[in-house]
Amino acid sequence: MGLSQTNRAGALRIGVVGAGTMGRGIVQLFAQAGHALLCFDEKPDAAAQGLTAVFSTLESLVAKGRLTSDALQSIRSRASICSSLADLAGCDVVIEAIIEDIAIKRDLFARLEDVVAEGCLLATNTSSLIVAEIASACRRPERVAGLHFFNPVPLMKVAEVIAAVRTAPSAVATLRAIVEGAGHKAVVVADQPGFLVNHAGRGLYTEGLRIVEECVASPSDVDDVLRDGLGFRMGPFELLDLTGLDVSSKVMTSIYEQFQEEPRFRPSSLVPPRVAAGLYGRKTGEGWYRYEKGQKVEPARKSAPSLPSGLSVWIDPDAPESGALAEIVQKSGARRRLQASGSDICFIQPIGEDATSTALRLGIDPIRCVAVDPITPLDRRKTLMLTVVTAQEVRDAAHALLASDGVPVTIIGDSIGFVAQRVIATIVNIAANIAQRAIADVEDLEAAVRIGLGYPFGPLHWGDRIGAARILQILNGQLRSTGDPRYRPSPWIARRAALGVSLLTPEAPR
User: Fold this and answer.
1) Rounded to whole angstroms, how far apart are CA atoms 251 and 206?
2) Coil, strand or helix: which one is 234?
3) For labelling alongside 45, which of 116, 256, 263, 463 has CA 20 to 30 A away?
């Protein structure tokens, strides 16, 4: 099944059906990799316009010195349009990149099978449909696979090769080789909802929304903590505004429904009213943020109050970052006390526990108690969490003290896991379940998330940095507090935490 090893190593004849944004990107990627490309679109002139757009992009690369004129001329000679599906008869691979409509895709694949040769592979760039359902329209579903690229295709250096239940292993191997020959990372994924990247990305959105639902923090607070404190390129609400809430809401609902209403993927009730109001994000000028001339209008942040003189501070000696907190206190001029009783501020750093519960457990006056997240580096952004009854003067004094070194402070309401702990634990938990279900292997999972989602680390690596036992502690704390099965830990985490081994540890061979 599939192309010969000799053909696979050399130039191929690749057909692309669909000349929209994704189709154009696929044409450019493989044309630059040295393959012959044929582009077809049912709409009159669409293929010609698409190829013109590709050449225009390549001309700009020549102008920037990133592509030679000779290379461009070579690509021009190898990329062309065709007027009918029949012209794709001599292709080694045909990649479909048309509208996300299962009936239309099935019809196309059935027609393609009447045109192409027996050894031609058929691939769909679907981002949300089950590949096996598309393949079932074909007499030979073993040669059909998913080949999901991300926009913009030439720059997003990862592609998912989706193996449907009847896809031949040789077809998967061939597509993986073609993708990697074009300079992209190819990750092999089982035919499951959201595949790998969109599946792994659910935690950032859904937990961010859940935190705002609970009035723990505002959208901008969540974004600030995750972007500045943890190194995300954008927070979940910035990302939702960029992709468009109209689009993202459908994806969230679709994945939730396709996973049989799995609680980990439950959509937020905050979303439908905003979609109904047309608050989609950047493209409508307002979403979670407002936009003027395409630029985000930054919401006002609370400035740090003046630092009172003569403050006395107690720091929980068991706090993970007690030494760093003590240094901030010393430099601020505040006086550190060894006893919580009589102190103006009591600092705690719970993991998997809220501030109120921690204060009561330690026998500290919750009115004088505030919590600082130990997960986010204190030199990037500090998260200050209040108990239910923290006094206003204590809040302001703690804010002033923590901001005295010039690092910004975000103040949030009481919550098991702050913002960062909750989001990271959810991301790690979903990734662990992907590994547990063998939807992708650990190496592909880590690479796909880093490249496809732009996270600072792969999710299981991130879990190791925090510690599997801590991730388990955060999830179990949320589960006990809320009773929501959304937070039930994956067995992958529980077993590795119990053994004291890395979350990257694969299952024993059997």
Assistant:
1) 12
2) coil
3) 116
Taking a C-beta distance cutoff of 8 angstroms, is the pair 59, 9 a contact? no
Q: How much is the mean pLDDT over the chain? A: 95
- Single-letter amino acid code for the residue at 508: A
> CA torsion angle for 474, 475, 476, 477 (degrees, to 10)?
50
Question: Band of the pLDDT at 128, cuts 50, 70, 90?
Answer: confident
Give 139-187 pLDDT, tens digit per residue.
Answer: 999 999 999 999 999 999 999 999 999 999 999 999 999 999 999 999 9
Q: Which residues are catalytic?
A: 127, 148, 160, 198
CA distance 109 to 46: 20
Question: Token digits for 307?
Answer: 């630092």
Q: Is 403 helix (H, G, I), strand (E, B) or coil?
A: helix
Please say whether the dihedral angle defined by the alpha carbons of residues 150, 270, 288 and 232, taken in this order, is positive or negative: negative
Q: Count the neighbouring beta carbons within 10 Å of the beta carbon of residue 217.
A: 23
Q: Give dist(CA 264, CA 385) in Å, integer.
A: 25
The helix (H) or strand (E) run that includes residue 160 is: strand 158-163
The CA distance from 453 to 451, in Å, is 6
Write out the two tokens for 100.
């996300």
Q: Does the pLDDT of residue 1 top 60, yes or no?
A: no
* Helix orientation angle between 468-482 and 420-436, rounded to the nearest 10 degrees: 100
Burial of 125 (0-12, 13-18, 19+ CB in 10 A): buried
- Asked whether the beta carbons of 211 and 222 are under 8 A apart, the reply is yes
Contact 381, 406 (CB under 8 A): no
273 pLDDT more than 80 = yes
Helix (H) or strand (E) holding 37: strand 36-40
Distance CA 129, CA 254 (A): 10
- What is d(CA 432, CA 445) in angstroms, rounded to the nearest whole number? 10
